[in-house]
Write a structure and sequence with these properties.
This protein has 150 residues and is mainly β. The protein is built from no helices and ten strands. Strand 4 and strand 5 form a beta hairpin. The C terminus is likely disordered.
């Protein structure tokens, strides 16, 4: 029912002065899995986006996600929307939409590893736009497969 999520969003912007590091550290402190069936997980998350550039602000971030899994949980897909909002200044530092396909590459007990291929659209401060990007990610999960019957 509950989960947490941490990621490093590593971006480099090339401008006239050379490359700039726009890395963020994003931690969804609490995610509520509001839909949990064998093949579908719907979640809402709340956390913080920490900018590793400029004034190194920490900003509230929320996430809405949907994952669809095969019956054996070895294949799946996800859609996710993230938005970071600074309520003091009414600025939206980041808005993001992503979609991905996941394939399990190993499973050992409750520890599962997935290779992910996806696309991402991001907008930073309404100025910096990353129209699309391909993402290649390794995801690792700790969960216990359980069958539920009613």
């Amino acid at each position: 029912m509950f989960s947490t999520d941490f990621r490093v969003n590593y971006l480099i912007e090339e401008d006239i002065d050379g490359p700039k590091d726009l890395t963020t550290f994003d931690w969804q402190v609490i995610q509520l899995n509001v839909v949990t069936t064998k093949n579908v997980i719907g979640r809402v998350g709340f956390g913080v986006m920490n900018e590793n550039f400029g004034t190194k602000q920490s900003i509230f971030e929320s996430t809405f996600g949907l994952s669809i899994l095969s019956n054996d949980h070895k294949l799946g897909g996800s859609l996710e929307y993230r938005v970071a909002k600074d309520f003091e200044t009414d600025v939206t530092p980041r808005r993001e939409i992503s979609g991905s396909f996941e394939k399990q590459i190993f499973s050992t007990g409750s520890f599962h590893g997935f290779a992910t291929l996806g696309v991402v659209y991001q907008r930073y401060y309404s100025d910096i736009i990353l129209d699309y990007a391909l993402e290649f990610v390794d995801n690792f999960f700790l969960y216990e497969n359980q069958s539920v019957s009613f």
